[in-house]
Design goal:
five-stranded mixed beta sheet; alpha/beta; Glutaredoxin; 5 strands; about 140 residues
Length: about 140
Amino acid sequence: MPYPEMLVAPMREDLTRVGFKELKTAQEVDDTLGKEERTTMVAINSVCGCAAGAMRPAVALSLQNNTKPEVLLTVFAGQDLEATEKAREYFLGYPPSSPSIALMKKGEIVHMVERHEIEGSSPFDIAEKLKEAYNQHC
């Protein structure tokens, strides 16, 4: 059962404020990811503590890099269920994980940060790993 929108709005804004476009329907995901060839980051957002304490701050920090993904997208696990399920169809070879961060190029995953890599890590450590991935793939 999704949380009330009033509760999750600030969690959504943590990413939209730094330039992410939210995809709220399966159709929006297909219309965007199905055609996108540029380097794209997809952040699977979540209400959990590791999303608030590590993933969202890490993503914002990582964007303070000269090289970064051209397209920033997000879906919200547990809230926008169909959009999240559809986004995960593009993450071949990776089990569902929220929060998580996928870096894609020409529709293929080139770097993935799964929940088990987010839990217990500092935002700074995650951001540095993302910056390394940007420098390599973007």
